[in-house]
Amino acid sequence: MLLTITNTRYPADDLSYLMHKHPAKVQETEFSQGIAHIFYPEVSPQKCTIALLLDIDPISLVRKNGPAGNDFALQQYVNDRPYAASSFLSGALAKAFSSALNGRCKDKPEMVSVPLDLEVNIPVLPVRGGENVLRGLFEPLGYTVQCTQHPLDGQFPEWGNSRYFSLKLTHTLTLQALLQHLYILIPVCDNDKHYFVGKEEVEKLMEKGRDWLETHPQKELIILRFLKHQKGLANQALEQILQEEEPAAETEETTTPSPVRVRMHDVRLQAVKDELLATGAATVADLGCGEGKLLRLLMNEKQFTGILGMDISYHSLTIAKDKLKLERLPEKQQQRIQLIQGSLTYRDERLHGYDAAALVEVIEHLDEPRLATLEKVVFGHAKPRTVIVTTPNAEYNIKFESLEAGTMRHNDHRFEWTRAQFSEWAGQVAQEHGYTVSFKPLGEEDPEVGALSQMGIFSKTTD
């Protein structure tokens, strides 16, 4: 059972400090069912790879588990546990890399919060539910997923595919975040655990998933599988998440903190639709379309003859397809709208040729250093005549009593800009790529801090 993690952010060998493992040594860590070997196949300032190889004793598995409760008499002796990634690997990660998993680094503490260019390879990962489940777990977190499904038997292709995948993940994020994702999602993919699951597992889930689980579109599946389908424990975890979500929901969905509430998201979408109509655009791309709320508004307007919805999350696109009832539409209407999966940090030929594009509350979900890539993809490569960008106005946050000073409205926001910061960014983008830009407030405008959200309208001036 093997897992490798590679860093290519210079100096890449800083990975060894974060992992608390010397690159010149092969180290071993014992755990209940075997030994974890830790070593570095490659170490340089340009590229550094650490490997975790689990040597599981199959006899130990039999002695500890015993024969009771098995429908298949040989199950304890004939199984995939020594070879396929599972909760054994998750447990070994927690023990071998405990300092990194908990965000500690003695020699270079400043590195803990630095995003690295990371790549993970798992040669054999069992996935209950297939590729759709695999992508639905990792892609909403920003990973680029490359996977190959293994056949049951290469000599008998008619038998079909197995549930085993070779997985490669790439992402720019902190090492701690990566390890937290792997710790939870590896056993979720396998849909099994090798040990008793009790209340302490809820605490582990809440601790390792506190920065991302509540916003994950597959959180119910993750919780249920991680807690081994114990509905009582799953309900406890969901209740904790819902309690944590309440303040964010209040700030994000209301235009004012008063008792009379107006859904800010509806105001925002309507304003974007009106701006798109005013441009005279016939073809429109909603970049980061989520579950398709803006798409539904655009479909009601005859002016828009071609509508594209793109999102990184396959799960969100599936929901959008269902809510838009695309399969029930007449053929001519079906040809009018297209849903595609893609990332705004990769050049995509499918984005060419649209009159206008909208990025509604999208940019704040990217790390600021990655915005330059998005700018090149949208403004430099796709080059629609009009681009509409909306983002929260950080100045307005003081209006919310439930929001602590210095915190953001949503756990997945990487930044929130003031009006001046948004104006400065938008002005630089416009100048660099041949656009002019104007600004409008979204929601009721406070004379001191502005509106809850802000919108920039970019208009192309040069080819």
UniProtKB/TrEMBL annotation:
The keyword Manganese does not apply. Keywords: Magnesium, Metal-binding, Methyltransferase, RNA-binding, RNA-mediated gene silencing, S-adenosyl-L-methionine, Transferase. GO terms for biological process: regulatory ncRNA-mediated gene silencing; RNA methylation. Residues 286-385 form the Methyltransferase type domain. Coiled coil: none annotated. GO terms for molecular function: metal ion binding; RNA binding; small RNA 2'-O-methyltransferase activity. InterPro entries: 3'-RNA_MeTfrase_Hen1_bac (IPR024026), Hen1 (IPR026610), Hen1_N (IPR024740), Hen1_N_sf (IPR038546), Methyltransf_12 (IPR013217), SAM-dependent_MTases_sf (IPR029063). It catalyses: small RNA 3'-end nucleotide + S-adenosyl-L-methionine = small RNA 3'-end 2'-O-methylnucleotide + S-adenosyl-L-homocysteine + H(+). Its EC number is 2.1.1.386. The keyword Membrane does not apply. Its cofactor is Mg(2+). Residues 1-241 form the Hen1 N-terminal domain. SUPFAM superfamilies: S-adenosyl-L-methionine-dependent methyltransferases (SSF53335). Belongs to the methyltransferase superfamily. HEN1 family. This is Small RNA 2'-O-methyltransferase. It comes from Chitinophaga barathri.
